[in-house]
Design goal:
The protein has 12 helices and 10 strands. By secondary structure, the chain is an alpha+beta fold. It has 3 domains: about 80 residues, Arc Repressor Mutant, subunit A, CATH 1.10.10; about 160 residues, GAF domain (Beta-Lactamase, 2-Layer Sandwich), CATH 3.30.450.40; about 90 residues, 2-Layer Sandwich (Enolase-like, domain 1), CATH 3.30.390. The longest helix is centred in the C-terminal third of the chain and has 20 residues. The chain starts with 8 loop residues before the first helix and ends with a helix.
């Protein structure tokens, strides 16, 4: 819960200007510069007094190497919750995001595109979870005999995600037997959620005494792998190298730890899971993430939906001094366009 601060208009204006200046230049901001930026007709002493009060409140801090001040996590949080004026997307950004979600793309392509466009437009690291992917709906099942007790399983999932999987079976099956197995599986699976149909089919397979039982068991295992049932949650990232441009993240040890987070994924997945209850954009600043490795970072995320259900979270990760007024609408619009594109698929 955000702590409440009583700030008059002058203090709010100075805090806003300090944060915007620090976001742009990554340099502590002195009272003289603040006076020029704010346009306030007050003395430098008055501004120093206001800044001292903001520091006492924990909204700004003074690095020991400079007389200027920088925003704290609390300062950023107050700015986002109370002072931020979210800007409109530029036309070029709107066009770039919209063009990423063309109708001819598969759901997998759309999800990859979302991560990449977030990185490209914000110049940060784009992230998107697949932890709540919509239930896989089987559209078509076909078997092709390869010989040497191998069978090619051709699956079409959802609209047009085609997957080929070679399975090893217990014996050589005839073309007629393969057709029979495909027809049996189709009765249970075509047009239904694979997870639901799988449970029902496994129950009934134990009662069947069919010669194709073994191949159907093998196919179910292949389909389970393809449909990612019981698989670990996944995360896509794009533009990790964008973080190299920020001095506060350029320390080699910090970068190594941060890239380990991208590779391991577990901590980020847990953090982004917190966005699944949000109605819109959720922001974690520094220690709010609960992970020390992200103490110099902010994560901005928003959920995307299929058929009214949250199926994942997308967003960006960057330094705490990111331009929130520009990043927030990019994340928000991308989530909405991805939702629309996924729901328009048949």
């Amino acid at each position: 819960m955000t702590e409440k601060y009583e700030l008059d208009e002058r203090a709010q204006l100075l805090l806003r200007q300090l944060i915007m200046s620090y976001t742009r230049d990554a340099q502590p901001v002195g009272s003289k510069n603040l006076a020029e930026l704010s346009g306030l007709d007050v003395s430098s002493a008055t501004i120093r007094n206001i800044m001292a009060r903001l520091e006492d409140m924990g909204l700004v801090d003074s690095p020991h190497t400079s007389a200027g001040r920088i925003p704290t996590e609390a300062g950023y949080r107050f700015f986002i919750d109370s002072l931020l004026e979210v800007g409109d997307l530029t036309q070029s950004a709107q066009d770039a995001i919209s063009s990423s979600f063309s109708r001819d793309k598969t759901s997998g392509d759309l999800i990859h595109s979302a991560s990449e466009i977030l990185s490209r437009v914000t110049h940060l690291t784009g992230i998107i979870t697949l932890s709540h992917t919509a239930p896989a709906e089987i559209r078509h099942i076909e078997f092709m005999k390869l010989g040497d007790r191998r069978v090619l399983v051709i699956l079409v999932i959802n609209k047009d995600d085609v997957h080929n999987k070679v399975i090893q079976v217990d014996r050589d099956y005839s073309e007629l037997e393969l057709q029979q197995a495909a027809q049996t599986l189709s009765r249970y699976l075509i047009g239904q959620s694979f997870e639901h149909a799988r449970t029902q089919l496994l129950d009934e397979l134990s009662e069947l005494r069919s010669n194709v039982n073994n191949i159907m068991q093998a196919v179910l295992l292949a389909m389970e792998e393809v449909c990612s049932l019981n698989a670990h949650d996944d995360l896509l990232t794009s533009g990790e190298s964008n973080l190299l441009q920020y001095a506060e993240l350029s320390d080699i040890n910090k970068l190594r730890e941060l890239f380990n987070v991208f590779n391991d994924k577990t901590d980020l997945l847990k953090l982004l899971d917190g966005c699944t209850t949000a109605e819109g954009v959720e922001i974690f600043i520094g220690s709010e993430s609960g992970y020390s490795v992200l103490s110099d970072c902010s994560v901005v995320g928003a959920p995307y939906h299929v058929k009214g259900e949250i199926v994942g979270v997308l967003g960006v990760i960057g330094p705490t001094r990111i331009a929130y007024e520009h990043v927030i609408p990019v994340v928000d619009v991308t989530a909405k366009l991805l939702t629309s594109a996924l729901n328009s698929q048949k």
